[in-house]
Design a protein that fits this description.
47% strand; 116 residues; mainly beta; five-stranded antiparallel sheet
Length: 116
């Protein structure tokens, strides 16, 4: 099995809640100067059909999409998840915050990340 670059050293994995209101952009992980936020897993669900996009935010006015638009179907048995990937599913731009923009319904969940 191939070894990813991030498998070569221990990472200090942190966790964050995803709590985002409908039709809004919400901060998930604050920016850290000179560091990227690398997301290694996430899960989200919603009580109603909605969409969401994870983005990098420079703190002023520029948002950079890190994912395409993802759809969450609101029902008791649905959600959206990405399992553990030690090399990361996505990462913010250096020194930028990780935010989520939701559609019309709220999204809740959690994510795991590390800084590098």
């Amino acid at each position: 099995m191939p070894v990813g670059l991030r498998d070569l050293s221990r990472q200090d994995v942190k966790f964050a809640k995803i709590v985002a209101g409908g039709s809004a952009t919400t901060s998930l992980v604050a920016a850290v100067t000179g560091k990227k936020i690398c997301v290694v897993s996430y899960y989200a669900s919603s009580s109603g059909n909605t969409t969401w996009v994870l983005k990098s935010f420079d703190g002023a006015s520029t948002y950079t999409d890190l994912t395409g638009t993802m759809t969450v179907k609101g029902s008791a048995s649905s959600g959206l998840s990405c399992g553990w990937n030690p090399d990361g599913h996505l990462e913010s731009l250096s020194g930028e915050a990780l935010v989520v923009t939701c559609g019309s319904n709220a999204v809740g969940g959690h994510l795991s990340y590390f800084l590098h």
